[in-house]
Design a protein that fits this description.
237 residues, alpha/beta, Rossmann fold, 11 strands
């Protein structure tokens, strides 16, 4: 089964610009591709499709890529079928998945990705590449027909993964607590992907890249830390 995905935890690191921390990885990943189809459905902060696409278009223009928003096409399925590469940006994961379903593009997008078309996701865009969006951090402000996502990789993802701040007085649940609650009812690996980290998935090979790392959870097992450069092929089993 072919796959070529770049799943990025976040689009912006504190103190840097949009995609600055991962632009070199994106440049290498998109080598030989001239155009990128951007899917702006996640609408961070309620931003419009046009405004979101403009941000991405201007950023990718620096690396000589032409970007077009999927909403600019009459037929979104045809847009996916003809795309050289697809990028889905971050925002609200529930809004994103619902709109993918509303536009009937889940099947077409999944097929193209499993044919080897390059796919880039940031945050919510990374979440929807996995089995389901049940491990997202977002509020369910809309209700998609299902939590089941593209399922082009057989694990779950928690972007922006954080450990509790040592001096914090916050008494709510930690990310680890919520993932443990998830594992009371579900099975499978959950990748807690820290900000600044990303996964490059090529066929059955998974490499952790970026400037930070990941904490990986499995039901009935102690979570384990991984660092950039580690191979995580076991996630594909």
């Amino acid at each position: 089964m072919k796959r070529n995905l770049l799943l990025i935890s976040n689009s912006t690191l504190h103190g840097s610009g949009y995609l600055d921390h991962c632009i070199n990885e994106i440049t290498t990943f998109l080598k030989g591709k001239k155009t990128v189809l951007f899917i702006p459905y996640a609408r961070p902060s309620g931003i419009s499709y046009d405004a979101y696409t403009k941000i991405v278009r201007e950023r990718l223009k620096v690396i000589q890529k032409d970007t077009k928003g999927i909403h600019e096409y009459k037929d979104p399925v045809e847009a996916i079928q003809s795309a050289e590469a697809v990028f889905i940006g971050g925002g609200n994961t529930f809004v994103l998945l619902k709109t993918l379903y509303d536009n009937n593009i889940i099947a077409a997008l999944r097929q193209r990705i499993l044919e080897g078309m390059p796919y880039i996701g940031t945050s919510a865009g990374s979440n929807v590449a996995t089995k389901s969006i049940q491990t997202t951090n977002d509020m369910p402000i809309v209700y998609p027909p299902s939590f089941q996502a593209l399922h082009v990789v057989p694990f779950y993802l928690n972007p922006h993964y954080l450990e509790p701040a040592p001096n914090s007085t916050h008494m709510g649940e930690t990310r680890e607590t919520r993932i443990r609650e998830f594992h009371c009812y579900n099975q499978g690996y959950v990748v807690g992907l820290r900000e600044g980290a990303l996964l490059h998935i090529k066929d059955e090979t998974v490499i952790l890249k970026g400037s930070t790392g990941a904490k990986i959870f499995k039901e009935n097992q102690k979570p384990k830390e991984y660092l950039p450069g580690d191979y995580l092929d076991f996630l594909m089993k």
